[in-house]
Amino acid sequence: MPDELAPEDAKIVTLARSARARTGAPEGAAVRDQDGRTYSGAAVDLPSLQVSAVGVAVAMAVSSGAKSLEAVALVTDADDVRPEDLDAVRDLAGTDVPVFRADRRGQVQARATT
């Protein structure tokens, strides 16, 4: 991983980290759409509704009119981004979208591409 993220990528990592910390959820995510707008959210785990943090952020982007995504950040203790989260990003954005996986400190551990 490069030591420095581009400022716009660092911003979504920070937003994802904040979403996780604010809610105490196991993961937080943020996405940047084609117009540079950002959306963040945390995992939802209710008895009748379970949605990953990436799922929440993608859903927020879609419900706000986003047609594509430029980048995704996920803050998690997991070792990988779930395939279904990559599928959700692919559904909206197609391929070649960077997905940054960071730890709770905001340090990027891996970069996947859809």
Helix and strand topology:
Elements: H1 7-23, E1 27-33, E2 38-42, E3 44-46, E4 49-51, H2 53-63, E5 69-76, H3 83-93, E6 98-102, E7 108-113
Parallel strand pairs: 5-6
Antiparallel strand pairs: 1-2, 1-5, 3-4, 6-7
Describe the structure.
With 114 residues, the protein is an alpha+beta fold. It has helices at 7-23, 53-63, 83-93, and strands at 27-33, 38-42, 44-46, 49-51, 69-76, 98-102, 108-113. The strands form 2 sheets. A 5-stranded mixed β-sheet has the order 2-1-5-6-7. Strands 3-4 form a two-stranded antiparallel sheet. α2 packs parallel to α3. It starts with 6 loop residues before the first helix and ends with a strand. The model has no long low-confidence stretch (mean pLDDT 95).
Main beta sheet: 5 strands, mixed
What's the end-to-end separation, in Å? 17 Å
Whole-angstrom Rg:
13 Å
Helix content class: 25-40%
Structural class: alpha+beta
- Low-confidence spans: none
Output the number of helix runs: 3
Strand residues, percent = 25-35%
* DSSP E strands, number: 7
Please, what is the average pLDDT? 95
- H-E order: HEEEEHEHEE
Strand order of the largest sheet: 2-1-5-6-7
Shape: globular
